[in-house]
Amino acid sequence: MHDARVLVVDDSAAMRALFCDVLEQTKNVLVIGTAANADEARDQIAELRPNVVTLDVEMPGMSGIEFLEEIMNTNPMPVVMLSSLTQSGTETSLKAFELGAVECFPKPLKATPEQFAKQVGKLGKIVLAAANSNVRDKPRHRGPKAESAAESGPDYSPNGKIAAFSTSMGGVDALTEVLMQYPKNCPPTVIILQTEPALAEMFITRADKDCACSIKAAVDGAELTAGTVHIAFDPNKHVIVEPGIPAKLRLVDRDPVEGFRPSATLLFGSLSRAGMATIGAVLTGMGEDGAKGLRLLKAAGFRTLAQDRTTATVPQAPTAAIEAGAVDSELKLEDLAKDVLANCGAAV
User: Fold this and answer.
1) Residue 219 near residue 310, CB atoms below 8 Å
2) CB atoms within 10 A of CB 10
3) Which one, out of 70, 275, 280, 284, has a CA that is 20 to 30 A from the CA of 98?
4) pLDDT tens digit sequence for 102-127
5) Backbone angles phi, psi at 307, to 5 degrees
6) Which residues contact 283 (CB under 8 A, 6 or more apart)?
7) Is the pLDDT of residue 146 over 50?
8) Which of 141, 169, 115, 181 is nearest to 285 (CA)?
9) Is pLDDT at 199 greater than 60 in this prediction?
């Protein structure tokens, strides 16, 4: 992992000072410059050559989202967007992911001093992960409901297996690609998405409209049936699977597992202990969450996958799972989705 050399772009001098102070307290993160607008940032990028940029969404003149689009079209590099958690801010965050942002970090403007310090303290780790991320420049599945291969292809018959995924940083983009391949009668699927709840909720709403299958927020007692994907994101609840016909989701109150809640390791472990036929996968993300649980699934004889490290936006989580000996196959996203569908059913 190499150091982060970050350029902080924000029209507020106070916010620039705050974020610089936070970032400089993070090991292996160096703030090499600041800019108040897109014009200054453009000059600083050319002169200082940062390997990651934090970019405020709301700036005078050229907006952050417009400048992000320029960066990704002319000089692609890892960008972490800074945005408020308003309705419009959340919509803009999804747009930023579409354009190629590695992560969208919420400005905790109305938080208590303690909450503010805790939230902003995460930024250093995010910036360091972004500096070591893979910037993607290939076309993505975007726009109004596009006809997916699932909709235009033959009918699909699930075989009862459960699919379980985990993802965090870069996950919105990765899940978009996977779920666009899912047919209407997809295998019952549980996904842990580590992101801001407001962003996850808006992503679910949009994905439910764009995808052939049904996409829902995970709720306690939900039945795992074909045709529905359940996405768990509540930072106050873990999600596990309770065996039965059909199996059910349970949202439980427990301490974080190795710093994560909801925990992918706990989800995968519940599926392994229950002996339910499962295919598990760790996608792009920070940290090591999911690696131990995926190893339990593999030991139980179930198929386990990881997103290809060379194309995962943030390869930390897939790498941890692979190095733990928890992965049967390391696959590109499009191949991963095909593998899941092939193992959980067949076209008819």
Assistant:
1) no
2) 26
3) 280
4) 999 887 666 566 666 666 678 999 99
5) -65, 140
6) 165, 166, 167, 170, 171, 174, 175, 178, 306, 307, 312, 317, 318, 333, 336
7) no
8) 169
9) yes
